[in-house]
Amino acid sequence: MEYIWFDLGYTLVYLNREEKFQEVLQAHGINRSIEEIKLAYHLADKYFMREHPGLLGKDRKYYAEQYQAKLNSYLGVIGMFDKDIRNIQAKTTVSWRAFPDTIRTLQELKRMGIGVGLISNWNDTARQVLQENNIFPLLDHVVISSELQIEKPDRRIFEHAIELAGISPERSLYIGDNYYDDVVGSRKVGMDSILINPFDWIGIEELASEDVTIISNVKELLPVLEKQLVAFRG
Q1: Phi, psi of 175, deg, nearest 5
Q2: What's this model's pTM, rounded to 2 decimal places?
Q3: pLDDT over 70 at 133, yes or no
């Protein structure tokens, strides 16, 4: 393995949305734990990835109301609170933050001599998010859908990335949290992949029969690579 490509959202960075939404709920006298809210967001994300491919990568105005209704239903806060919560949530400011182990993992990959790149379906804020979270200096190549006008799982965005890096897909690995964009897309060009899913198979039960390696978060990548290296050396 000479090069590892990463997705951005919920692979390297996350939104502090759960804490903010908990505050919104509490303002309405509704108590839900952070874990309950995290699971609800997770289920909503996976639902849209499966049922509405590509929509989450669009401007939020195209799916915000539908997404919020789905989230509320998973949390059991529909009905009289639904409209008020949706309106307040739309005005709540959240920000993208690097996962606790993102920087350390990327630094270790660089130390190992492995190339590190990004292939992401994202709007024109991608580079700002990377800079604000000190991720940009650790990336050898950055490929963003809005700049190419090509989105995953289109094979052309992966072909562009490997051509840019001058590396073969067989010696590349892709890490992402969306099976339908990340695993399906990278496989189109012969690139192996690992899927991030923090709740094991929850939310992606339809993929249980698929041949896909799952890790809970980016920090589990290094132990997986170390095991593969040991197996290779025999």
Answers
A1: -120, 125
A2: 0.91
A3: yes
